[in-house]
Specification:
The protein has 227 residues and is mostly helical. It folds into 2 domains: 2-77, Winged helix-like DNA-binding domain superfamily/Winged helix DNA-binding domain (Arc Repressor Mutant, subunit A); 83-219, GntR ligand-binding domain-like (Four Helix Bundle (Hemerythrin (Met), subunit A), Up-down Bundle). The chain has 10 helices and 3 strands. It has helices at residues 2-10, 16-28, 40-47, 51-64, 82-106, 109-128, 131-148, 152-171, 178-194, 198-216, and strands at 37-38, 67-68, 75-77. A 3-stranded antiparallel sheet has the order 1-3-2. A hairpin with a 6-residue loop joins strand 2 (67-68) and strand 3 (75-77). It is elongated and about 55 Å long.
Length: 227
């Protein structure tokens, strides 16, 4: 029964993006432990794909700091250390603060309306405790703010940095009470943007990511390497 359940989880997706998400979530939540080997043949069989997308998924996981690899050796689970995670979240907080500040000044009327509508609708997800649905909403919520800054370079930087932190930002919602707190933090950002208060919006976004950083720290590995 346990083996069947594990296999179902492992084979949840077959695209590179789905594999990256599935493997990253297992690493962050401890289903895969630091030092565990990630054999390409075994992973290909589990996901029912060829080895080519597996290699691509492992490369992306390596860029996230979740997988390590030496020449002519199998990839292994490394996880991100607490120091590395803090460094990435520190940069993310600054980027999100800038995006929110510019969004408060630059978002169109339609963009503000869409942000508000989506945010209010997410309260139903919070009330029903729908973690996966809220996680998807959370990604789109922040993406709207990145796009609302109307700065292509900033959009690229924020999106790339967020991609590296995605497994940890998803994992935070497993913590008791985190969904409702996230909604409250979003509410502060949205209200500042709707009122056209750049500095307030920027500070609210910065504070939000800093809180996410603290919540996600529990999923980081000790400050050591796995070779």
């Amino acid at each position: 029964m346990t083996q069947q359940k594990r296999r179902k989880v492992i084979r949840a997706g077959t695209t590179v993006e789905q594999m990256v998400r599935a493997i990253a979530d297992m690493i962050v939540t401890g289903a895969m432990l630091p030092g565990e080997k990630l054999d390409e043949v075994s992973l290909a069989a589990r996901f029912d794909v060829s080895r080519t997308p597996v290699r691509e998924a492992l490369r992306e996981l390596g860029a996230m700091g979740l997988v390590g690899r030496e020449p002519n050796r199998s990839a292994i689970v490394t996880n991100v250390t607490d120091t590395q995670l803090h460094s990435m979240f520190e940069a993310m907080a600054e980027l999100e603060g800038i995006c929110a500040r510019l969004s408060a000044a630059r978002m169109t009327v339609d963009e503000r309306r869409a942000l508000s509508v989506e945010h209010r609708a997410s309260l139903r997800l919070v009330d029903r405790g729908l973690l996966e649905h809220y996680s998807a909403h959370n990604t789109e919520f922040h993406s709207r703010i990145y796009r609302g800054a109307h700065n292509e370079h900033l959009l690229e930087l924020a999106t790339q940095t967020r991609a590296r932190l995605a497994p940890f930002r998803r994992a935070q919602f497993r913590l008791t009470g985190r969904l409702s707190k996230s909604y409250e933090e979003h509410d502060r950002i949205v209200n500042a943007i709707l009122r056209g208060h750049p500095e307030e919006a920027g500070q609210a976004a910065y504070d939000h990511v800093s809180i996410v950083s603290d919540a996600s720290a529990i999923f980081a590995a000790p400050a050591q390497s796995y070779q």
